[in-house]
Amino acid sequence: MSTATGGGPDWHRLHLRTVLVTALVTAGVVGGAAVPVTVALSGRLGFARAVLWELAAAALLIGCAAAGDYVRWRRTRYRVGPERVDLHSGLLLVRRRSLARERIRSVDLTAHPLLRVLGLVTVRIGTGEQGGDSTLELDPVTRAEGERLRRELLDRGTPPAPGSHREGELAGFDLGWIRYAPVSVVAPMLGGAAAGGVLQISDWVGAQGEVLDWVADRFRDTPLLWAIVLAVLAALAAGVVGALGLWVEMWWNYRLEREPGGALRVRRGLFTARSLSVEERRLRGVDLVEPLGVRLVGAARVDAITTGLAKDEETRSADHTTLLPAVPRAVADAVAAEVLREATTPTGARLTAHPRAARGRRLRRAVAVALGPVLVQAVLGVLLSPVLLWTALACAVVFLPLSVLLGLDAYRSLGHALSGGYLVTRSGTVRRSTAALQRAGVIGWTVKQSWFQRRAGLLSVTATTAAGGGAYTAHDTDASEGLAFASEAVPGLLEPFLDRG
């Protein structure tokens, strides 16, 4: 629905089905709460009267929610002009918000299952800046209207960049990628959450003691160590199932496309459909991310280093910059090259290794982190109970060798290089990151050298940029080599601060 205003662009309303969506969502919430409330009221009022009271209360709540949303729909309108996008809303407190079209960096479409059934989407128009006033949300409009807004607001009339790289689909869904879901950090987290959820729900219904007794009965004849191992394995199995389900929900129907006009578009989602668009002129590089479990099986994911995608509450998602989920490393390299329109990906460049002094620093840090809990338990064991001495010994036996391995791996992961128009930095062990940043996107350098680094002849150089995380660091490089790397990466930027003598 639209209304004309004196020769200017038309004002449009949200879709009226928003009232139906609100009513159905409220009905679902009321229905979920109805069972325990009915059980609680049945003892006082009787079952029949409790149901009648529940139905009356449900009708009142659903009616109030639908009426409130109808008022919101009546008082909300938007328009897209040649220079600005305007959104007016509110009844008692009227809000008039406006975004300059030249500052718009993202137009994202999201649709949960109910919206998808009704042919609607939520459109989120953002400038990439921090703060609630940097985003306009149209919730909901028709799918066709959402697509029209996305094309219109992101079309800058920019000709495609020169090169032989293909347009259209750059990567598509492959069910085989699901094998990397169980080795992500999400699986143990979901396993722990599942165990905690069972205990919490059993406590709510007053049956936590029975649950614990049932578990104890199952392991009554099992040695304590094996009981702990089996419990951990059961939690991990639940976490693996949860990770598989979460991966399917997030990445089903995945497609990465290059659209006419120079925009990369990611579409994905099984129940909740998501669409994220990134202008190529805002792209400053890619980040090849390899969490430890994923890296051990030879996989990596690709994130975009781009301006205009601030990580704040408006994005509602931590993976808003992800262009490609965890896939085989060769596939990730190929897609990264296609995204950057390069013959070979800079993230695959041969990196300069860092001095051995950097290895010592990582080993000392890793061992110190592992020794902390051991020393605390040892002291408490001397003061309180000898049992803590045995737990301290167990922690030392398990965590000290593990810390040494992680420290060595962290050193092997260090590296930096220049590859064509990109500077490349790599670091991390639990989460290894190989970032390829356009040299033209560097706006400054930060050089840090602690007292310990100075004694070891090391320093850390950080390239600052307006894109991605804002800073990409080559940690613990040789002092002269690190400065030469920064000077060569962006000639003239660091030269006034260098003493060639």
UniProtKB/TrEMBL annotation:
Source superkingdom: Bacteria
Coiled-coil positions: none
Key words of the record: Membrane, Transmembrane, Transmembrane helix
Transmembrane segments: 19-39, 51-71, 185-205, 225-248, 366-384, 390-408
Domain YdbS-like PH: 73-145, 411-481
Pfam families hit by this protein: bPH_2
Protein name in the entry: PH domain-containing protein
Annotated source species: Streptomyces argenteolus
